[in-house]
Write a structure and sequence with these properties.
2% strand; 2 strands; 14 helices; 319 residues; 80% helix; mainly alpha
């Protein structure tokens, strides 16, 4: 028990140090900051929710000592609480339908609850910076000084034009993009942490197969409601709904990846195909690839591409 507590405290300390590395501008600090949830998740996935809570509280305390209360609040909201939530949900077990064994809480449901948390945090951030004008105008005013600084560094003499283009393109979707980056950050760290633990046999739950990922039905209705508000709403409602659509599309993006993994599984060169696919996805993500994969996930959720292929398989082999 003492060993587990020490590991949890050490994990929280490592997470706090990684988070503060980016703030202090140390070499490679931003890379370490992206890995800040990893120690918390590894502690939780290897030792359980209680250890994850100890690690999270230790991390918050460490950041408070190093960077102050504000930094601790940001760390707690972005890393500590989401990591604890992921671990708590991931460790839930329920009896199987026949009662002979226990079933782990679906990873897709964990992902969807994380998306709901990010959406709630996004709305909280929006309303904390909104002034008397519209939400979009308030966010534009908030970002303008940062855009001006960036424009001077990147564009030089053409800084004014760059600043206008930057704000015109980014402001309408900035909250959604922030939510996407946060969701992917926690998810990737969770997958990496589970993989590292599984390699040593330290993971509590078995590593789920990526191609078998499923999502609960309720996330579809959240996406539909947000999309409907985008189409039929106006002003602040339309702005918020568009950004919520972007956030709620992330679970479907991962579901789309699961479909791709399922489709290439029978191929002899599946490793090469997946490598080429992910290379294309990374290079062209902002253009169209991410939206296309999320769309594939939506189709899978409503139509069931994988189940249809499974049913068609035996028929095709018998012909």
């Amino acid at each position: 028990m003492k060993k587990a507590a020490l590991i949890a405290i050490g994990g929280g300390g490592l997470s706090a140090a990684a988070s503060m590395a980016g703030l202090f501008g140390s070499p490679g600090g931003f890379v370490l900051a992206y890995l800040a949830p990893l120690p918390l998740l590894m502690v939780g996935l290897g030792l359980g929710p209680a250890a994850a809570l100890v690690a999270a509280l230790t991390g918050v305390a460490g950041v408070a000592l190093l960077g102050g209360i504000t930094s601790a609040g940001v760390y707690g909201g972005m890393h500590a609480f989401p990591s604890w939530l992921v671990v708590r949900q991931a460790m839930i077990q329920s009896p199987s339908q026949d009662g002979s064994s226990a079933e782990w809480y679906p990873v897709g449901s964990v992902l969807c609850w994380l998306a709901v948390l990010v959406a709630a945090a996004a709305l909280l951030i929006v309303f904390s910076i909104v002034g008397g004008s519209s939400i979009e105008s308030s966010i534009s005013d908030f970002l303008r000084p940062y855009a001006a600084t960036l424009a001077e560094v990147v564009a030089g003499s053409d800084a004014q034009r760059f600043q206008v283009m930057f704000l015109d393109y980014l402001v309408p979707i900035i909250i959604g993009l922030w939510g996407v980056s946060w969701l992917i950050l926690v998810t990737v760290n969770g997958v990496l942490g589970q993989w590292l633990l599984a390699q040593r046999g330290w993971a509590i739950r078995p590593t789920p197969r990526w191609s078998d990922l499923t999502l609960p039905d309720w996330i579809s209705w959240l996406l539909v409601a947000a999309a409907a508000a985008t189409v039929f709403g106006s002003g602040d409602l339309e702005y918020l709904a568009l950004n919520l659509v972007i956030i709620f599309a992330v679970p479907f993006f991962f579901l789309g990846l699961a479909v791709v993994h399922k489709l290439v599984r029978p191929l002899s060169a599946r490793g090469f195909v997946l490598a080429a696919f992910y290379f294309t996805l990374i290079v062209f993500f902002m253009a169209f690839a991410g939206a296309a994969v999320a769309g594939l996930g939506v189709i899978e959720q409503w139509v069931g591409i994988r189940s249809r292929l499974a049913k068609a398989g035996p028929t095709q082999r018998s012909e």
